[in-house]
């Protein structure tokens, strides 16, 4: 069981690396690029949309949002681009590091969400 989870984690890392390569490929359409960059920013951000210290919900966002976003982004990328990116990711494994851009994006989403919540509440 533990070995199965480790293999799944390695596959997820490889898929994220392939997604980053496919997002940089000029053959990838812009909507797929934007979604891929959003998924990568979320995956590599040091903060989560729902903080991990919140019981159950903190882990559910990692278990549901990230795979769902990855699945959708991979479906939007053309097959030939994705197969090239997967081959390149398998041939040259990269270490995925935390992203400053991902942090900035997540902080921006928090600020936007709080601003919208404040505007809604102030209209009240």
Plain-language structure description:
The structure is a single chain. The protein is mostly helical and 124 residues long. Helices cover 77% and strands 0% of the residues. The chain contains 5 helices and no strands. The mean pLDDT is 84.
The count of DSSP E runs of length 2 or more, i.e. the number of strands, is: 0
Largest sheet: none
Percent of residues in beta strands = under 5%
Count of domains:
1
Shape descriptor reads globular
Averaged pLDDT, please? 84
Distance between the termini: 51 Å
Structural class: mainly alpha
Spans where pLDDT lies below 50 across 5 or more residues: none
* Rg result: 16 Å
Tell me the helix content.
over 70%
Q: Which key terms come to mind for this protein?
A:
124 residues, 77% helix
Topology:
Blueprint: H1 2-24, H2 30-44, H3 57-76, H4 79-91, H5 100-123
Helix pairs in contact: 1-2, 1-4, 2-3, 2-5
InterPro entries: DUF1232
Subcellular location: Endomembrane system
Main location: membrane
In short:
It is a multi-pass membrane protein. The chain has 124 residues and is mainly alpha-helical. Helix content is 77%, strand content 0%.
């Amino acid at each position: 069981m533990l070995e199965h989870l480790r293999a799944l984690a390695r596959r997820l890392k490889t898929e994220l690396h392939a997604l980053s390569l496919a997002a940089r490929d000029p053959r990838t359409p812009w909507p797929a690029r934007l979604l891929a960059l959003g998924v990568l920013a979320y995956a590599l951000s040091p903060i989560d949309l729902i903080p991990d210290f919140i019981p159950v919900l903190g882990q559910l966002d990692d278990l549901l949002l990230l795979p769902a976003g990855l699945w959708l982004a991979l479906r939007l990328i053309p097959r030939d681009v994705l197969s090239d990116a997967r081959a390149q990711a398998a041939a040259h494994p990269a270490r995925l590091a935390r992203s400053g851009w991902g942090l900035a994006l997540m902080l921006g989403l928090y600020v936007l969400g709080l601003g919208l919540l404040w505007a809604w509440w102030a209209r009240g």
